[in-house]
Write a structure and sequence with these properties.
The chain is built from 10 helices and 10 strands. The chain has a single domain, classed as Rossmann fold, CATH 3.40.50.300.
Length: 237
C-alpha cells in the first residue's frame, strides 16, 4: 500500500494556553481532494495552520514521508505545500500580473513549470482583463481568484485552501469550483476547508468532519449524504 502524501497523526494545537486540536488523525493521498467540514470555531483553520507550522503543535505531520512538525513555515512551503488563507493575502500595491509572478517558484521535481501566468488567465479570464490593475482595488471575488492563482504559481503538490467561497457571488463560486476540479485533473492534492456543503461534496473524494477539535466523521461524500445524524449534530446550523 502506497504512503499517503500527507499523514497527520495525534495532532494537538494551541493558541497561547487554549488547547484547540485534540489528537487529530488524517491523511491525503496523491491527487486527492479532501474536504474538512465543520461549524465555525471547531478547529479547521487551526489544523491548516498547524500543518504549516504557524501555531504551536505536537504530534506528527509527515509530508511525503518527511516530518514537517518543528520546521519553519517557509521550509514547509518549499517542501511543496501551498496555502490559501481565508483573508485573501494579496499584495495590494502590486498589479495582478506582479502578484502572480511573485508567487512563481520552480518545483525541483518538475523539468518545467507546471503552471504559467497564461494558465491562470485561462482559468480566470477576469484576471487577464485586470492584469495591470493594482490588486488592492479588485473586488473580493477577483482577489480570491488572484490568491488561488498566486499560490498555484508556487507549483505546490498539496494546497490547503481555507474557505475559498466565503462571501462570493454564485457565479464566482462556480468558477472557484471549476478551478478546484482543474487542480484535481492536474494531479494537485487539496485539503479544502469549506462551509458550503454542496461544493465540498461535489468536488471532494473524501470528507472529514471536525467537532470540538476532534475528527468525528471520515468517509466519502456519499457516506456523509447518507448519514443524517452526523450532518444534524455537527454541520447543520
Amino acid at each position: 500500500m502506497s504512503q499517503p502524501m500527507l499523514e497527520v497523526s495525534g495532532l494537538h494545537a494551541y493558541y497561547g494556553k487554549s488547547h484547540i486540536l485534540h489528537g487529530v488523525d488524517a491523511h491525503i493521498d496523491d491527487g486527492e481532494i479532501v474536504a474538512l467540514l465543520g461549524r465555525n470555531g471547531v478547529g479547521r483553520s487551526t489544523m491548516a495552520k498547524a500543518i504549516l507550522g504557524m501555531v504551536r503543535a505536537e504530534g506528527s505531520v509527515k509530508f511525503r514521508g518527511q516530518e514537517m512538525l518543528g520546521r519553519r513555515t517557509f521550509e514547509i512551503a518549499h517542501a511543496g505545500i501551498g496555502y490559501v488563507p481565508e483573508n485573501r493575502d494579496i499584495f495590494p500595491t502590486l498589479t495582478v500580473r506582479q502578484n502572480l509572478l511573485l508567487g512563481e517558484k520552480r518545483n525541483p521535481r518538475q523539468q518545467k513549470p507546471r503552471w504559467t501566468v497564461e494558465d491562470m488567465y485561462r482559468m480566470f479570464p477576469r484576471l487577464k482583463e485586470r492584469e495591470n490593475t493594482s490588486a488592492g482595488v479588485l473586488s473580493g471575488g477577483e482577489q480570491q481568484m488572484l490568491t488561488l492563482c498566486r499560490t498555484l504559481m508556487g507549483d505546490p503538490d498539496l494546497i490547503l485552501i481555507d474557505e475559498p467561497t466565503e462571501g462570493l457571488a454564485p457565479m464566482i463560486v462556480t468558477l472557484v469550483g471549476d478551478f478546484l476540479k482543474t487542480l484535481k485533473e492536474r494531479g494537485v492534492s487539496v485539503l479544502l476547508i469549506e462551509q458550503k456543503l454542496a461544493i465540498a461534496l461535489d468536488i471532494s473524494q473524501r470528507v472529514y468532519v471536525m467537532g470540538h477539535g476532534h475528527i468525528v466523521f471520515e468517509g466519502t461524500p456519499r457516506d456523509l449524504k447518507a448519514n443524517a445524524q452526523v450532518r444534524k449534530e455537527w454541520l447543520e446550523v
